[in-house]
């Protein structure tokens, strides 16, 4: 069975739509779906039996096709919503009634639920495709139930539903030509969601302990509580160490990057310095050219000098020796 819905104890009456709003499908969808009366449908509109062909062709606005879908609807999810969307859109003018089984019936025939019946009823009243909710719906649909709620067709996936000693609880509905099939959404179901939680049980317990839930609320023993809290501390330490390691790696990487950058710049500056040095002081460098030119200039500017030890070779002395007044000329 798919999900079934309900309202919340005393709050259920607060969601009860006015009588005139329960006459047909919700238009504005601003209000929660109504809860069905225990006496059934009280509409005064004549309710003639419809064939599927007539329903698909369309009906007058004041005579919507009343489609019923039932289920447990525990942990109401997108798979439930998609099934109800299909049921709502199976005919052009559909009034969708959803039946939700009680906790007592569900726990007896299927198993324990996560949500209470009131929570499940209330969840479905807020589904946009639902016009009316039947609380404490029967596990097997009876003829009396169909007449009481003036149901034209029953919507459910086509897979035989074996339960309560029957090979298919919808068999008599199918034989009466009142069954319309919907398709299940693969990959999502209440059982799948519960399996995920059970699989990661320790993670969720630790998370809720961290959020302030007590071990008593989580039905966790003293030893397990200490184990979970110790594991939480260990994980925090691991995360701190991991963070420090990451920061250290980043720091080392930056230091290496800076070192490589400095070495590269030093190599470039060294090559530039050596090149400039060779240009200035090398064999063909500017310094030798300057020295050579300076020597030539100094040589050009300085007086001519005789070799050492022969002062008489000076031109001045030679002129003096040739003077007529010198003693040697006499």
Q: How many E-type strands?
A: 7
**Using only CA atoms, what is the Rg?**
51 Å
Query: What ranges have pLDDT less than 50 throughout 5 or more consecutive residues?
Result: 3-25, 317-323, 326-330
Label the overall shape.
Answer: elongated
Q: Gap between N and C termini, in Å?
A: 160 Å
Backbone structural class = alpha/beta
SSE order = EEHEHEHHEHEHEHHHHH
Alpha plus pi helix count: 11
Q: Helix share of residues?
A: 40-55%
Mean pLDDT: 81
Largest sheet: 7 strands, parallel
What fraction of residues sit in β-strands?
5-15%
Explain this structure.
The chain has 330 residues and is of the alpha/beta class. The chain has helices at residues 52-57, 78-88, 103-109, 117-125, 143-148, 171-175, 190-199, 201-210, 222-281, 286-301, 315-321; strands at 2-3, 34-35, 65-72, 94-100, 132-135, 153-157, 179-182. Helix 6 links the parallel strand 6 (153-157) and strand 7. Helix 8 packs across helix 9 (222-281). The model is unreliable at 3-25, 317-323 and 326-330 (pLDDT under 50). Residues 9-21, 302-315 have a biased composition (Low complexity).
């Amino acid at each position: 069975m798919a999900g079934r819905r309900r309202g919340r104890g005393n709050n259920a009456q607060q969601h009860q739509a006015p009588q005139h709003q329960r006459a047909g499908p919700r238009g504005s969808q601003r209000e929660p779906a109504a809860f069905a009366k225990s006496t059934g449908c009280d509409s005064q509109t004549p309710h003639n039996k419809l064939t599927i062909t007539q329903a698909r062709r369309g009906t007058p606005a004041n005579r919507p096709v009343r489609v019923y879908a039932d289920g447990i609807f525990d942990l109401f999810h997108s798979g439930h919503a998609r099934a109800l969307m299909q049921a709502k859109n199976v005919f052009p003018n559909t009034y969708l009634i959803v039946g939700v089984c009680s906790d007592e019936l569900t726990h007896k025939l299927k198993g324990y639920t996560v949500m209470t019946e009131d929570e499940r009823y209330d969840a479905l009243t807020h589904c946009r495709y639902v016009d009316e909710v039947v609380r404490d719906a029967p596990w097997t649909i009876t003829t009396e139930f169909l007449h009481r709620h003036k149901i034209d067709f029953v919507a459910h996936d086509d897979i035989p539903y074996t339960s309560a000693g029957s090979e298919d609880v919808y068999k008599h509905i199918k034989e009466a030509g009142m069954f319309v099939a919907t398709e299940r959404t693969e990959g999502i179901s209440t059982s799948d969601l519960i399996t995920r939680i059970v699989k990661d049980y320790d993670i969720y317990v630790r998370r809720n302990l961290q959020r302030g839930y007590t071990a008593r609320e989580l039905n966790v023993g003293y030893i397990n509580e200490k184990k979970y809290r110790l594991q939480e501390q260990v994980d925090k330490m691991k995360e701190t160490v991991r963070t420090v390691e990451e920061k250290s790696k980043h720091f080392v990487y930056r230091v290496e990057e800076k070192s490589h950058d400095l070495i590269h710049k030093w190599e470039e500056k060294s090559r530039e310095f050596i090149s400039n040095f060779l240009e200035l002081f090398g064999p063909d460098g500017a310094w030798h050219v300057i020295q050579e030119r300076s020597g030539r200039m100094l040589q050009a500017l300085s007086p001519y000098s005789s070799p050492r030890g022969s002062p008489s070779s000076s031109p001045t002395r030679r002129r003096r020796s040739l003077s007529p007044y010198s003693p040697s000329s006499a």
